[in-house]
Amino acid sequence: MNKWGYKLTITGIYAPYEDNGVTAKDEFFANLNEEIVKSGSGRQLILMGDMNGRIGRKTGDTVVGNFGEDMVNDNGERLIELCTQTSLKIWNGFFNHKNIHKYTWEQHTKNLKTIIDYIITKQDSKLKIQDVRAYRGPNCGTDHKLLMAKILFPYTYTTKDKHKEKKENTATMADKKRKYNIESLQNESTKFLYQQRLNNKLNRKEFTKEALGEKVDNKGRKTIFWDAEIEKERQNKKQLF
């Protein structure tokens, strides 16, 4: 899918149980690796779901964070190896939460709880993962907790934006270079006309240029600002007096 300027692949995962045979696990992780490679380098990738794997915790590691649990099982080791080979990051353990917000699976009858559901992205992902935690409140109809991630999609700077910015900068520079003949306000007719334009027009630059005219440039060329309309206004003002 394309989301806010990003090409994004989201893959839902349900891995074999820890006590499943080696063949089933080998096949699953081989297929998962194929899907990761298939997504390509130009797409943002999010893997999420039940990996049935416990990955423990590590300090200063690029795959596993420091705030997980202690236990590691076979599925967890396989997942870590896969993420290491494909430069992925398992985000759960990189955010320090209370234990009730870490455990994603809980069985009350046997007093068992663990972390087996994960949010995974590329290590060099342009998406900014701001938080990952489990929520106990929602009833999902399962012994798994609702796992949520806060993901920021930074604004993508497109070629269209560059052209727009360049055009705006050019217009701004032109405005800065423009000089108005302020001295002409000493003329009562010009001053009267300027006040009228000020009341009637919204675009300050346009009515200033129209009423005052532009200042003489450095080469000595005189800018003509007195026209028939201004002369008419002057005559009208004279008749009023």
Commentary on this structure:
This protein has 6 helices and 9 strands, in the order ββαβαββββββαααα. The strands form 3 sheets. Strands 1-2-3-7-4 form a 5-stranded mixed sheet, with helices on one face. Strands 5-6 form a two-stranded antiparallel sheet. The chain has a two-stranded antiparallel ribbon with strand order 8-9. Strand 2 (6-14), helix 1 (22-39) and strand 3 (44-50) form a beta-alpha-beta unit. The protein has 2 domains: 2-152, Endonuclease/exonuclease/phosphatase (Deoxyribonuclease I, Chain A); 160-234, no CATH class. Helix 4 runs antiparallel to helix 5 (204-212) and helix 4 packs across helix 6. It has 241 residues and is α+β, with helices and mostly antiparallel strands.
Outline the fold blueprint.
Blueprint lengths: L1 E2 L2 E9 L7 H18 L4 E7 L23 H12 L2 E3 L14 E3 L4 E3 L2 E6 L5 E8 L10 E7 L6 H19 L10 H13 L3 H9 L15 H13 L1
Parallel strand pairs: 2-3
Antiparallel strand pairs: 1-2, 3-7, 4-7, 5-6, 8-9
